[in-house]
Design a protein that fits this description.
single chain, 388 residues, Aspartate Aminotransferase, domain 1, Aspartate Aminotransferase, domain 2, 3-stranded antiparallel β-sheet, 12 helices, globular
Length: 388
């Protein structure tokens, strides 16, 4: 039995998106910047996808710039704003951002920018009052992740965006883990910049998008042919974009029913593991992505170096089940999850984190089987603390 429970890492490309990509590669393969019929067919495919992606977040299609993925979209948002200023200013992020936000921000900090990293509570949530207090006269950008990939916590985006509007500060959110999973309306929320990724919502890898509020000035990262309305030079990856558009449209159509189904499976999974005292749920149980479960191991069962989140991932992989761990391994040394450290967990707890993310193919039988296997693995690894 093969059970894939790592949909926050990537999702399998759905057949409808593959069909769209095949169509483009066979008959709409022209350069979309060319004005002849071959180029026009390719350009039409891109514009159709632009409408499909825009509809997913209730945006104006002209406000969608296609990128190579979420990382580029995030970098474009951060550096596009920063490069609009000739002198360093002040920028605010959370302490639980994805590295594609935290890394460019750290680079800006080394160049003299003032950076505030907002704290989060034990569940990974920001207090909007902290943002209110952090804004300064020279604050030019606030970037807060919509939902955290490791622990599934959804931030109070509406409140945070409202505070930024009140202070006339640009607000960006990394919605890579959220788009296609929960309903997003950039107009109602008052969001200025928002990042999306294709392969997180059953589209192909290698495509993403940045929503840019009409009227907002942004300096492009790439200079060249001026594609994507001048925001992103370079010949567009037409097949990937076409597949992205189809996946976005289907995600929007299926959102309500699929959310209800995934929440039911997620909560069933939490209940099945509730009698396993070694597994401590992380993240916010109420403000949480519908498909997301995460845990850390109790510190007392990590006295042995063998018992880490990576250990559990490897053991489940041997059983044909794919999950992930928040800890990173570099040069043979295990590094605690910075997200869990920011949430107040100890280093031992932070290296013992695991994440299970459900998807369209996940069934009740998958949930029941995985819970049973996970308990057996933990019982075997920690016989002194048996799950009953």
């Amino acid at each position: 039995m093969q059970i894939y429970l790592d949909h926050s890492a990537t999702t399998p490309t759905r057949t409808e998106a593959i069909a769209a990509m095949h169509r483009v590669m066979m008959s709409e393969w022209g350069n979309p910047s060319s004005i002849h019929q071959w180029g026009e067919r390719a350009s039409t495919a891109i514009e159709q996808a632009r409408f499909q992606v825009a509809a997913l977040i209730n945006a104006n299609p002209d406000a969608i710039a296609f990128t190579s993925g979420g990382t580029e979209a995030n970098n474009q948002a951060i550096m596009g704003v920063a490069n609009s200023y000739t002198t360093p200013q002040h920028l605010i992020i959370s302490s639980v951002e994805h590295s594609s936000i935290s890394a460019p921000v750290t680079w800006l900090e080394s160049r003299g920018w003032q950076i505030t990293r907002l704290p989060v509570d034990r569940a990974g949530r920001i207090d909007p009052h902290d943002l209110e207090l952090a804004i300064r006269p020279n604050t030019v950008l606030v970037s807060i992740i919509y939902a955290q990939s490791e622990v599934g916590t959804i931030q109070p985006i509406a409140e945070l965006a409202a505070i930024c509007r009140q202070h006339q500060v640009c607000f960006h959110t990394d919605a890579v883990q959220s788009a296609g999973k929960i309903s997003i309306d950039v107009r109602a929320l008052g969001i200025d910049l928002l990042s999306v990724s294709s392969h997180k919502l059953y589209g192909p890898q290698g495509a993403g998008a940045l929503y840019i509020r009409p009227g907002l000035k942004l300096v492009p990262l790439l200079a060249g042919g001026g594609q994507e309305m001048g925001w992103r030079s370079g010949t567009q990856a037409v097949p990937q974009i076409a597949g992205f558009g189809v996946a976005a449209e289907l995600a929007s159509e299926e959102l309500s029913l699929e959310n209800s189904r995934l929440i039911g499976l997620r909560d069933r999974f939490f209940e099945l593991l509730s009698d396993c005292p070694i597994l401590v749920p992380t993240g916010d149980r109420l403000h949480r992505l519908p498909h997301h479960l995460s845990f850390c191991l109790q510190p007392k069962c990590q006295l042995s170096e063998a018992i880490t989140g990576k250990t559990i991932v490897r053991q489940l992989n041997l059983a044909g089940i794919g999950i992930s761990s928040g800890a990173a391994c570099a040069s043979g040394k295990l590094t605690p999850s910075p997200v869990l450290l920011a949430m107040g967990y100890s280093q031992n707890e932070a290296v013992g984190s695991i994440r299970l993310t459900l998807g369209k193919s996940t069934t009740t039988a998958d949930i029941d089987w995985t819970a049973m296997v996970l308990k057996q693995i933990i019982d075997r690894l920690t016989p002194q603390l048996v799950c009953v």
